[in-house]
Amino acid sequence: MPDDQIEASTVEQENSGAPTAIFANRVFVTVDLDVTRLSFGEQTTADGPIRYRTAVVLRSSDAVQLRDILSNLIERAKNSVAGQTGNVDDKKT
Description:
By secondary structure, the chain is an alpha+beta fold. The protein contains 2 helices and 3 strands.
C-alpha cells in the first residue's frame, strides 16, 4: 500500500456499501476556517459502534444560516405545541 493511503477499518469497509441512513441519532461536527462538516450516523445500542453514513460540507456562512433556520423552526414548533397543550417544559409527569 502506498504511504499516502490509509487502510480503512473493518467498520468503515462494512459501511462503505451500506445505504445512507434514514435515521440519525449521532452527529459529529468539524469546523475549519472556511467550511463546516456535519457527519450523521446511527448507533443502535448503547455500546455498539457509531456508523456514520452521510456527511454534508457547508461554507461556514451557510452553516450559520442553517443554524438560524433550525433554531427558528424548533422555536416555532415548541410554541405551536405549547399553544395546543400548554407549556410542555412545565408539565410534570
